[in-house]
Design goal:
The protein is built from two helices and three strands. 19% of the residues are buried. The chain has a domain of 61 residues. The chain is an alpha/beta fold. Strands 2-1-3 form a three-stranded parallel beta sheet, covered by helices on one side. Strand 1, helix 1 and strand 2 form a beta-alpha-beta unit.
């Protein structure tokens, strides 16, 4: 990812924590935001130790980790409906 800094909300567990680990592994500095301060501190230390990244500089990306479970009906779209980002991810 280069000299990127990404904000991840809901970062203390689940999809948010997995996203933090992924973007840190890709070399981005990460700003973590969640309600659980103790888990945030643990995750921040983990990614700093394993990947040498920090949350510095202006943000170049934001991941908002919030979901809502809904009952059917659901719509299934083909993958090409979704726009890929500059890293080739959906």
């Amino acid at each position: 990812m280069g000299a990127e800094t990404v904000l991840v909300t809901g970062a203390s567990s689940g999809i948010g924590a997995a996203t933090v680990r992924r973007v840190a592994a890709d070399g981005a500095d990460v700003a973590l935001l969640a309600r659980s301060e103790d888990r945030l501190r643990e995750l921040a230390e983990e990614v700093a130790d394993e990947h040498g990244v920090e949350a510095l500089g202006p943000l170049t990306g934001v991941v908002v980790n919030a979901g809502l479970a809904q009952e059917p009906p659901t719509t299934v779209n083909e993958p090409d409906v979704y726009r890929r980002d500059k890293f080739g991810h959906f």
